[in-house]
Protein: LacI family DNA-binding transcriptional regulator
Amino acid sequence: MNSKVTIKDLAEAAGVSVTTVSQILNGKGERFSKKTQEKVITLRDQLHYVPDFNARNLILRSSRTIGVLVPNIGNPFFSTFFRGIQKVCRQAHYLPIVFSASNDETSEKYYLGNLVERSVDGLIISSSSVTADTIDSILKPNHIPYLLFDRNQTHDDGDRLQVDDYQGGQLAAEHLIKLGHQRMVAVFPENLTNNLEKRLHGFTDELKKAGIHFNPKTDIVNAPLTKLGGYEHADEVLSKKATAVFCANDELAIGLYRGLHEHGIKIPEELSVMGYDNIDLAEYVTPKLTTIEQPILKLGETSAQLILKRINDLNMERQLVDVPVKLVERESTARPHSYN
Amino acid sequence: MNSKVTIKDLAEAAGVSVTTVSQILNGKGERFSKKTQEKVITLRDQLHYVPDFNARNLILRSSRTIGVLVPNIGNPFFSTFFRGIQKVCRQAHYLPIVFSASNDETSEKYYLGNLVERSVDGLIISSSSVTADTIDSILKPNHIPYLLFDRNQTHDDGDRLQVDDYQGGQLAAEHLIKLGHQRMVAVFPENLTNNLEKRLHGFTDELKKAGIHFNPKTDIVNAPLTKLGGYEHADEVLSKKATAVFCANDELAIGLYRGLHEHGIKIPEELSVMGYDNIDLAEYVTPKLTTIEQPILKLGETSAQLILKRINDLNMERQLVDVPVKLVERESTARPHSYN
Structure:
């Protein structure tokens, strides 16, 4: 519906053929006179001609596009992750396209199908609800390279960026145990993705090793990974009479802060709160949040690097990259109140 | 570089011509036998054939894509704004593509040029640094419909979604004056976009009306619109010996909270803090932030509706939509300490 300046307009203005214009603009103009070359270049600038990508596209069979599917671009984790992807893609002259699918399987299928239709070159999928079925039915038959992130699918044989979630859970437990906590509760979503499952297992295994009682049936509060999720489950967390809470991510922990604050509970004096991710906001809440750091920007950059390498060589060996996590101790955790 | 299932593969499998397949899949298969029609549809599903968008594209001359340019997708304001756009676009079967250009003019030109190359159907531009020159040199000559948001360009004659920033500034001043504040400071970025200029003018005009002294040269602290910007200028804000601060947006106010907290300053007892936007986070900080609400999700939805209408009718009359703002009083503002 646009009436863009076309290559034909440009050719007419220059008094040469479309082929001539095309070759000059594609850097293959040596066989034309300097004068003709200059005329075409000057007119391109004067007329603000932008080559039509779709036409070029059909020849290249590539849209130079990377699709990125995240559950929630409103979570600072994912906006930072995308910033890393954007940076690397730009250097490689690829365009990253992000979709926020709210963990809704229908939305995810819709966006994935749409991207495949548009000949996307590769996909970075970070989502808890993209099923193996979706991957098998949409991506594999169309031979679209993809990278699963934040899921650590064990049954998938593709490239993998592995964040050590098990170790992250262990570090959280170790920190709280060291402070002297004996009665802990974990706040995690009901349907665990593989990475969250590992995070939780690292945590519970470490408690077990230390001889601390933890009953997965009663000591886990189920809440969505959002600020609202944390806020709405503050009552339930308090009912567990724990001295420390391990939250599945920082957003959730920050929502829990609000609920605890409304109940007049002091953090960390009356309850220690621990997050996960180290989003930039973690330093801006009061008290500053103790958390497990994932190098988020770097994760985005590395994801983009892996998918670009794969696009350039579909047959190369499987890429496996391990990413470590670390404890960031701030002000939201302390010795349990019974010890004070 | 992908080896997608093509229409040719499908035609071969069905034992019919490519044209036959194309017509059947495009709902124009009445002239073929029911059997042929069914065979093609069944094979399409079995082979997971997805029509090639780029090929279709050349015929339609439309990519069914809306480009969205924002300064910072990590600011919850813009992620919520984009969520609204995504919702409306999906209903209209358009794909919104978002870019976060960090208020960097080079990045913005890069992404805009890239989108024009890809035959984007329309653009929603919310950015402080896209210049009139960029618009005149890239968008206008290519006849790409665009909507400027969050800028309220007075010289632009295009469609406009007008948020009443002047009134927003007035409401902020009115609220602080009513509480009894006489000594106020404003925190705003150095280079003001048109909307921020109005916001600030509404604020200062209202102070003037009330006979309150405010010197724009000394009573404005310049800081970027980010949490870090607010945090790093806490010292300067405190040096002004004001009893209330009006921040240009909530992110900045939340950063300022941290700086004030580190100085041991109590909000609102020692200093009232007022934000702008009402991002969801405003309710999650302690104390909850008093702010001016923009209906962010609705702004995104309306932006998408306006641009889609324009795409469907390039010659329709100019669209002007006014969006009101309102005061949301929470816990970060109170009577000035000298009054207590």
The longest strand of chain A covers residues 65-70. The two ends of chain A are 71 Å apart (CA to CA). The first helix of chain A runs from residue 7 to 14. The CA atoms of residues 85 and 91 of chain A lie 10 Å apart.
